[in-house]
Design a protein that fits this description.
Blueprint (H helix, E strand, L loop, with lengths): L1 H32 L13 H5 L3 H11 L16 H13 L3 H26 L8 H11 L12 H16 L4 H12 L8 H15 L5 H11 L4 H14 L5 H7 L12
């Protein structure tokens, strides 16, 4: 088991590094040699700012000033809280600008994603090729849209959490633990709530294979399952109570780009 983990980590780090060079090189070339309009929320053109443009500027504003909402323009309440919270915590430790901590969180989550993906492929009963995990990691790293996993976006944190949940199900983790991971995913991005039906299937399968002496623990895990949607529901409740009296209510907020997301950092 230890040798398998060591081999997977080595593969993950190697492929993360080599495929990351392509993205960094492309962004550097575009920043230095291609004409690029300065983002209106950024003060200068730089390599770091190129990796933290667009959604990254909104996440940076959450780290620096917390959540806010204005019914007449786009607001950072449109973004879920886990990713900026992780970056804010890291910023408190490292004492550096929020853009850097956002990128550090994204890349740490991406490395973890590579490792968990490799372990998940190795753990699959359908895996009959010893090199399958390596080719899977390489294909994932070279997929064009994974460039966003290396930028100040929440994609790497979210997909890493999803893979941890799937790996836990494959390894028959305790349902209460899997439920907590699924709940964490629902606070990363709203589509995390789609993991709930998958969790229900997992609970049903575990109920079938568990012995009678484990029924009590299964009942506890079913109770824990109810907490998986808590972060998502908390966001809905918070936004509903805070802005339902504003002009246009939720529907107006969504039309203006505010959405129904955001919590925890005030504003």
């Amino acid at each position: 088991m230890r040798s398998k983990l060591t081999s997977t980590v080595a593969q993950a780090l190697s492929i993360y590094y080599l495929t990351g060079l392509i993205v960094i090189g492309g962004v550097w070339f575009g920043t230095v040699y291609l004409p690029r309009q300065e983002h209106h929320r950024q003060k200068e053109l730089s390599l770091v700012n190129a990796f933290t443009a667009w959604d990254g500027t909104w996440y940076a504003s959450i780290c620096e000033k917390g959540y806010s909402y204005c019914p007449t323009r786009q607001s950072n309440v449109a973004f879920f809280p886990v990713y900026p919270l992780l970056a804010k915590g890291l910023q408190w430790v490292l004492k550096v600008r929020s853009e850097l901590t956002l990128l550090i969180v994204s890349h740490l989550a991406l490395v973890a994603l590579y490792v968990v993906l490799g372990l998940y492929v190795r753990a699959s009963p359908h895996n009959t090729d010893s090199n399958l995990s390596q080719w899977t990691l390489l294909a994932f790293g070279l997929w064009p849209t994974t460039c966003f996993f290396r930028m100040a976006y929440s994609e790497s944190v979210f997909l890493m959490t999803v893979l941890v949940a799937m790996y836990g199900m494959e390894r028959l983790w305790r349902p209460a633990v899997v439920a907590l991971v699924v709940g964490f995913a629902s606070a990363c991005r709203p589509v995390g709530i789609a993991l709930l039906p998958v969790l229900l299937v997992y609970l049903w399968e575990r109920a079938v294979i568990w012995s009678h002496r484990d029924r009590h623990e299964f009942a506890l895990s079913v109770s824990a399952r109810r907490t998986t949607g808590f972060p998502f529901g908390l966001v809905l409740l918070f936004c509903g109570r805070r802005w339902s009296s504003d002009a246009g209510g939720w529907s107006g907020a969504r039309r203006r780009g505010a959405g129904i997301r955001g919590l925890l950092l005030g504003g």
